Amino acid sequence: MTGHRRTILTMMKDEAADLLEWVAYHRLIGFEGICVYTNDCTDGTDQMLDRMQQMGLVRHFRNVVPDGKKPQPHALTLGQKNPEIRDSDWLLVMDADEFLVIKTGAGHLDDLIAACPPDTQAIAATWRIMGSNGLVDWNPGLVTASYTRSAPDGFRKGWGVKTLFRPFPHLKLGIHRPTVQQARKDPARMQALLDQVWINGSGRPLPPSFKRAAWRSSAASVGRELVEIHHYAVKSAESFLLRGMRGNVNNKVGKYDATYFAIFDRNEEPCDRLLQHRSAIEGEISAWLEDETLRTLYRTGLAIHAERIARLRGTPDFQARIAVLKRAGAVPYDQLDDILYVQPLPPQSKALVRKMQASGQDDRTIARQIANSLRALNERRDAEEAAEMAQMARDGSG
To answer: Which of 57, 75, 123, 145 could cross-link 37 (Cys pair, CB 3.0–4.6 Å)?
Structure first.
């Protein structure tokens, strides 16, 4: 089978409760190729996808992860060898807690592509971090209707990108953006990438330094006028605890802790753009659930999640864990630099943090030192990309 015109590649594990909404939404906005790799599902997500494939809604592939490998990188390796994915006109690699939000025209992929320069080969859409809306209970309803508050535009910790792009020779897939295989050994391949036209979410050309290695927007390159990614990083407090039980695609131990919740439970701004699609999403889901097999699998998946929530609620420390998350989510926006968030740091920086803690420095002091260092790095990158983009404008390439 050949590739689709417009394809999403994603990885899933135990997404039965939210699977139908995610697929329905992205099909409605113009992706006919929804390609899903699953691993180690225990709630029937893989069986649901099998049935949905039979119904012509998705393509489902098993991600049998070898010992010592991580689910997400392994799925990416499989995906870039898969002609159904590789041979697409447009490809987007994204996660199941992310929704591509098109802010031009009627919110359809056609509208986005029409609004971009005709030679565009990649569109870097910046995250908008969506908060819990103060919800505690697990909510099996529509994610896009339940969580309608977000971080403000300037929340730099949430400036990661996901990239919609035209596949090209020697492609190497990444979770945030593509690059080229063996770029260091073959400079011509990297130059071919640098020669491509990449734009930000406002349609403005991105500079060479971004195309070379960046996976986050800078103050110079960020843009949201045409498109962005809604990232539902936490959902409700109970959903967050349930997510921690499931694990994560890169096998990071303890990733979903209270510190993560404090950083990403941002509710400063109303953000209900996706409510415009609610009736269409619900209509699609209702039509699909006319299929008895899918309906049974979906209800079974919901029951499994409900049983897991019931077990969580029955644990002796459940109320204490919820209280910790409530306190974490209540940290004001302007005090986030006081939180010691080491997860995204490189190994050598994590080792330095442990050394500083062992010497008696408190976490708040260490967090502020990290924030100051990151601020200096960000300012340098902002200046570099701003200079490049100004030069591009003078050269007529921006």
So the answer is: 75
Give the span between the Cα atoms of 148 and 131, in whole angstroms: 8
The whole-angstrom separation of Cα 266 and Cα 208 is 32
| Tokens (6 digits) for 49 | 């996808």
Nearest to 36 by CA among 105, 108, 94: 94
The angle at the Cα of 382, spanning 189 to 185, to the nearest 5 degrees, equals 20
CA 46 to chain centre: 20
Alpha helices in 106-185 (DSSP H): 109-115, 143-146
SS (H, E, C) 32-96: CEEEEEECCCCCCHHHHHHHHHHCCCCEEEECCCCCCCCHHHHHHHHHHHCHHHHCCCEEEECCC
Give me 221's structure tokens. 């390159």
What is this structure's pTM? 0.95
Task: End-to-end CA distance of the chain: give it in Å, rounded.
Answer: 38
Give the confidence band of 346 by pLDDT, cuts at 50, 70, 90. confident
Query: Which pair of structure tokens corresponds to residue 226?
Result: 């045409």
Q: How far apart are CA 398 and CA 391, in angstroms?
A: 8
Q: What is the pLDDT of residues 158-181, one digit of tens each?
A: 999 999 999 999 999 999 999 999
Query: Which residues are CB-neighbours of 376 under 8 A, at least 6 positions away?
Result: none
Burial class (CB in 10 A: 0-12, 13-18, 19+), 307: exposed
What is the rounded CA–CA span in Å between residue 361 and residue 354? 10
One-letter amino acid at 51 equals R
Contacts of 306 (CB under 8 A, 6+ apart): 138, 140
d(CA 259, CA 224): 27
Place of tokens 């509208």: 111
Task: Judge residue 373's burial from the number of C-beta atoms within 10 Å of its C-beta, 0-12 exposed, 13-18 middle, 19 or more buried.
Answer: exposed
